Amino acid sequence: MIRVEDIQKHFGALHVLRGITFDVKKGEAIVIIGPSGSGKSTLLRCINLLVEPDSGKVFIDGVHVNRHGIRHEWVRQQVGMVFQSFNLFTHLTAIENVTLGLTRVKGMPHDEAVEKARKLLARVGLAAKENAYPAELSGGQQQRVAIARALAMDPKAMLFDEPTSALDPEYIREVLDVMTALAREGMTMIVVTHEMGFASSVASRILFMDAGMIIEEGTAEDIFQNPKEERTRSFVGKILR
Amino acid sequence: MEAAAAFPLRAPPKLVSRLTIVHLVEMILAGIFMVFVVLPAIFRFSLVNPAFWQIYERFYVTGLFGTFFYVALTLPLSVALGFLMGWARVVRVRIFSWPASLYVNVFRGLPPLILVIFASLFGTNLVPQPILDRFLSGFRRGDIAVGLAAIAIAMHSSAYQAEIFRAGFQSVPKGQQEAAQALGLRSWQGMRHVILPQTFRLSLPPLGNELAVLIKDTSILAAISGTELVAKSRDLLGILPASGLPIVWIFAVWTVVAVTYFVLTYSVTRGLRLLERKFHTPGLEAISL
Description:
The complex is a heterodimer of chains A (241) and B (289).
Chain A: E1 2-11, E2 14-24, E3 29-33, H1 40-47, E4 55-60, E5 63-64, H2 72-78, E6 79-82, H3 94-104, H4 110-123, H5 139-151, E7 157-161, H6 169-184, E8 188-192, H7 196-202, E9 205-210, E10 213-218, H8 220-224, H9 230-240
Parallel strand pairs in A: 3-8, 3-9, 6-7, 7-8
Antiparallel strand pairs in A: 1-2, 1-4, 4-5, 9-10
Chain B: H1 18-43, H2 50-90, H3 94-109, H4 112-126, H5 129-135, H6 141-171, H7 174-183, H8 187-217, H9 229-243, H10 248-278
Helix pairs in contact in B: 2-3, 2-6, 2-9, 3-6, 4-6, 6-8, 7-8, 8-10, 9-10
């Protein structure tokens, strides 16, 4: 479904991604962990081309997407993205946040878009909040709207960039529940997170990244119980306490 | 998205509250009190004096329409220029942002009176002859000079408005554009549907302030005898001493002028307040410069 081949990325003098290669099969949920500054977010952004890789190839559903002739807008419709800071459109209500992409990108008629948005908001448990502005929602509710907004485009895969790191502890559960349900329904997803419970129960595979490279890859058990690399061991030791 | 609402949206915010109405009534009562009680008591003169208006009316109406004309010319022009310059300043392309910065700093740094003097004296030399011949041949040279001076006032105001719009643009978090892109919106669509509506809401309150300043600044055109309220009122006062009319009329004329400017700016700022309320969104409250 998604294939990344030897991705390199520099920001000025900073070498952020140093040759990343991995594969995500359809229906897999991949969790990426690693210390901050290890390039996890940049890697996700390279997949939907919010960041253009310096070299290397990104394939989505077999299509080489980071080359001339492929519209970025098209790529971004194939993979939805959920941000750490939600990034809901502040001036639009919950339902308008979900319909914007449908009407403006997909050209869906307004009524149809509203109907679809209502279903999606119900799916993330926010049917009653459709007319609330983001500022009137809790962090957890905002993040669920953001998930509904991304799902509205019928993406083939979803990217989650630390979706619960900006949340107060009491709201983390509700967001993870929505994500877990998504994974169970067979959505292909790549999740950058430090929620070990989620990683253990949902992830088909875990990638450990450090300093722009994938250091180790394996099941939750491999990574958390029997890490092979010293760097993995030290990181896992820190986050599992 | 604001207009099309086939589904039940939230109840629109109440535009005119009871407090606004009470406020308005108070203002009107205070005005009536001034005109009918205070002024007659102090100066033995009422502003509803028919003899006064018989003479002043012609000057007043001509002047008022002149002021309306210059406001109608400068207000949209300054907003358009201000928006353009504000936008150019945030674009990360030097050939746009550098001239825009220069523009803002020059026009903000000069007193509008100086700009008006320059524009009226030398402005016509800057307009290419073919344009003068083609489009402006119907106007007198003096009128063109005043028009250019009005444009100079608009440019002065637009420098301030550019800063307001720049602040508005910069207050929209970067994540908003990123989220728009991640949805598959083209960058102009992100601009149109995500960034601009937020900039607009954030800029509206300080913009109202600046527009009030602009309206009052059109009175500077009196310095070069543009046909507007202050100049026309001064015209009347020029003939007053010789005509043997009561000297207290001087005071009356300037009172009328003052009240007129007040009503003008007050209505515009109130009108913008209504807009502000109509587009009020939780989480998008006004910026301050």
